[in-house]
Amino acid sequence: MDAHDVIDRLRTVEDPHLDGDIVELGVVRSVNVDSHIHIELALEAKGSAKEASIIDAVKQALEHTNIPLTIDRVQPSGHDPASDVRGSVANVIAVASGKGGVGKTTVSVNLAAGLAASGAAVGLFDADVYGPNAPMMLAGEERPTVSDDGQLIPPEAFGMKVMSMAYLVGEDDPIIWRGPMVHKVLTQLWDDVAWGELDYLVIDLPPGTGDTQLTLLQTIPLTGAVIVTTPQDVALHDATKGLEMFARHETNVLGIVENMAGFRCPDCGSVHEIFDAGGGERLAEVHDLPFLGSIPLDPTIRTGDRPVVLDGEEESATKFQELASLVADNVGIVNRRRLEPSLLGDQAE
Asked: Pick from 95, 92, 96, 93: which is nearest to 241 by CA?
């Protein structure tokens, strides 16, 4: 068996989301055959069940060759979405909302923790300048340290690296900054944090569409954004403004998540739709975007000292686990759509 035979077999593996097989779409970056079959696949969404299914299908296509198989995930040539960050970040995800009070930081923290629980290397950047609450939700008292070359080394919590504005100011100090100061500090944080090798960097944006959001959109190469809303009309109206902001900056929206969707009474089991119901799903349908699910109102989210996504089979934990999986799947789709056609040259003929 030679490389041509291997490639012919790989042509039988269809992408689960895109129209074509993994050879013609450029997912297969190289094939080498000697005493082993060594294949490089451009699959950058760690924790994606759909990308895992592609790898399983590759193994199945080559299972009767009786030659040991090695599969490596690689970045496609020229694809370096976060070349300015200290380290290498494969995927940068912004979590945004049109208004405050919708639980955006809760979603950010649980999304990041859920991706980390899947085995991915994850960083959480709390860029909500005026309300940096992520460290509080992680019950983390450890603060950044400084390396010999002056870089900030982020502390770790629940398997992820964390950086927040909260580490740089006093606990009760108000942050009273104008736009230029915000721009300077966020740019410095982006440039001066030693994130290392990450599969995902989740950025918790402040609510709205102001200076902070524009600074990050113009500075950081985003893979995509997640929009958080609650079901009622006022939140949906503001979420639409966030969608428009990302559209103007040609940023992919990975989906919409509806938070505070309903409260299940612990005594009677009935669900009370305090903030209405179904608004997030309707918003996603109107804009032809993925709907990432509804997260219920749950006191354990507020009172717990760790991300609820880690709490086994509880309803809220399951919803956040599904959210993390869907986001990883959609990151994979975005990345595979960017791929150039097959670069295998004569091997693919």
From this structure: 96
Residue 47, C-beta contacts closer than 8 angstroms, at least 6 positions apart: 115, 118, 119, 120, 199, 324, 325, 328
- Domain span including residue 69: 3-79
Whichever domain contains 166, its CATH number is 3.40.50.300
Compare 139 and 7 and report the one with higher pLDDT: 7
Give pLDDT, residue 160: 95
345 in any annotated domain: no
pTM: 0.89
DSSP state string for 299-333: HHHHH-SS-GGGSTT-HHHHHHHHHHHHHHHHHHH
Helix (H, G, I), strand (E, B) or coil at 148: coil
Q: Are residues 303 and 274 in the same domain?
A: yes
Q: Is 222 left (phi over 0), alpha (psi -120 to 50) or beta?
A: beta
Over residues 59-95, the pLDDT tens digits come to 999 998 889 999 999 887 555 555 545 558 899 999 9
Neighbour count for residue 150 (Cβ, 10 Å): 8
Name the residue with higher pLDDT: 296 or 108.
108
